[in-house]
Amino acid sequence: MDEIRLKSYEAIKVFKKNNIKVLMATGDNEKTAKSVTDILGLDGYYSEVLPNQRVEIVKEL
Questions:
Q1: What is the pTM of this model?
Q2: Above 70 in pLDDT, residue 1?
């Protein structure tokens, strides 16, 4: 797993403070995606996502 950047923690804190849900779409596997989600306190995640699938996820949301 890559190191989570300090800026990520800060950005998520601001989003949460403003009642904005934070979801992650990543190419990483399920285990890594869940771990990062838990560490950062995200509202959910999509794992093993290809680049073109990210656009579709955003459209759905």
A1: 0.83
A2: no
